[in-house]
């Protein structure tokens, strides 16, 4: 029995049950799909208590835009975002007075612009 417990503890230490999720810097509640990478020097962020604008770029050598769209179509509604538009090169979501736009900027390598901004009323 002790051997079983010892082996179980070792397996949990060396083989974690889940991996740590990555999130968009500046948008800590927006996950990044595995094999997407945030372009660090392409970020824009502005905001105060009433409005915000965050724009960043994600890139991948192995993914296509359809896979990115599929991931965010499944993930963002779980975070309260509602899909408003789904076009060939662009997706638009809304949540709590903000819009989130994903747009394909290039194909090879894939570059996706992700923008979150307050809706002006």
Which short descriptors sum up this protein?
alpha+beta; single chain; 121 residues; 6-stranded antiparallel beta sheet; 20% helix; 2 helices
What would you note in describing this structure?
With 121 residues, the chain is α+β, with helices and mostly antiparallel strands. Helices cover 20% and strands 46% of the residues. It is built from two helices and eight strands. The protein has helices at 2-14, 65-75, and strands at 23-24, 27-31, 37-47, 52-60, 82-86, 90-95, 98-106, 110-118. The strands form two sheets. It has a six-stranded antiparallel sheet with strand order 3-4-8-7-6-5, covered by helices on one side. It has a two-stranded antiparallel sheet with strand order 1-2. It starts with a helix and ends with a strand. The model has no long low-confidence stretch (mean pLDDT 86).
For the largest beta-sheet, the strand count, sense and barrel status come to: 6 strands, antiparallel
Number of helices: 2
Q: Low-confidence stretches at least 5 residues in length (pLDDT < 50)?
A: none
Percent range for helical residues? 10-25%
- In whole angstroms, the N-to-C terminal distance is 65 Å
The coarse overall form would be: globular
Order of helices and strands: HEEEEHEEEE
Structural class: alpha+beta
The side-by-side strand order for the widest beta sheet comes to: 3-4-8-7-6-5
Average of pLDDT: 86
Count of strand segments: 8
User: What fraction of residues sit in β-strands?
Assistant: over 45%
- Using the CA coordinates, give the radius of gyration: 18 Å
């Amino acid at each position: 029995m002790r051997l079983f417990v010892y082996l179980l503890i070792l397996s949990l230490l060396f083989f974690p049950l889940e991996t740590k999720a990555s999130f968009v810097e500046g948008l800590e509640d927006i996950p990044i799909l595995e094999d997407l990478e945030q372009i660090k020097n392409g970020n824009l962020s502005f905001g105060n208590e009433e409005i915000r604008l965050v724009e960043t770029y994600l890139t991948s050598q192995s993914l296509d835009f359809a896979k990115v769209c599929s991931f965010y179509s499944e993930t963002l509604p779980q975070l309260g975002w509602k899909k408003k538009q789904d076009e060939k090169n662009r997706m638009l979501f809304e949540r709590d007075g903000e819009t989130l736009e994903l747009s394909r900027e290039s194909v090879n390598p894939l570059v996706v612009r992700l923008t979150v901004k307050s809706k002006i009323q």
